[in-house]
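Input.
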Amino acid sequence: MLTAGLKRPWVALADLVYPPACPGCGVSVGAHRGLCPACWSKIRFIERPYCEILGSPFSHDLGVGILSAEAIADPPVFDRLRSAAVHDGIVRDLVLSLKYRDRTDLAPMMAGWMLRASDGTVAACDAIIPVPLHRARLFSRKYNQAAELARHVAHLSGKPLLAATLLRIKRTSRQVGLGAKARQDNVRGAFAVSEHRAADIFGRRIVLVDDVYTTGATVAAATRALKKAGAADVTVLTFARVVGHLI
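Output.
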C-alpha cells in the first residue's frame, strides 16, 4: 500500500504529460493500455468453438473435442495452439506497433488477452519460453517482441520465464512475403536449446510465446528443438493469428 501511495503522484504527472490515448485511433481514454469502445468493438477475439489442436475458430459448435480437417490431415509438431485474436484491423496495428514502433508499453495489455485465451494451458505449464531472435537482429531491433509478451504473461501468471533457454542459432531471412514452403526452409534448424539449460526442458510442459501465428513454420521449428531436448508438452500461445475463413 505504501509503494502504491508513493507511485500515485508520479502516475498522475505522467498522465498529465502523456495523456492516455487509445493505441488504435489516438482518441483520449480513461487510462493507459486501454482501447476506446469503437476500436474494442472491431476486435475479433478467438473463442470457442474452435479446433482443439490448432485453435482454428469454427463458425458454429460442432461438439466437444472436434478437430479441423487441417489438424487431422497435417498434425502439427506442437501439442496445441491458442491465440487471442484474429490478425486484422486494430489487432494487426497493435502487433506492428509492438514489433516495429517501440510500443513495448502495449505488451502488458496484449499479454492479459493472451493469458485469457490460453484456455488453462498457462496455469498448467511448468515454464514459459519466448520465440527468440538471432543476436544480430536483437542488436538492431533492441528488444524481442515475443520476449516482451512472454515476460508479462509470466508476470501475470506467476510462472517461470526461461528467456535464455531456447536460442536462435541461425540468422534467417524475414518471413514476410515468403510462401509456406519457403518459410519452412528458412527456419529449418534455426533453433536449439542451450546445452547448459537442457534440464529446464526435459519432461516439462512448455508454453511457447510468439506475437503472430501465420503458417506456423517458426513455432514448428522452435517446437522441434524443444521436443528434441525432451519437452513433454508444448503449447504455442500467440497474441494474433491469421485466419482465412471460418470453418
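The longest strand covers residues 205-213.
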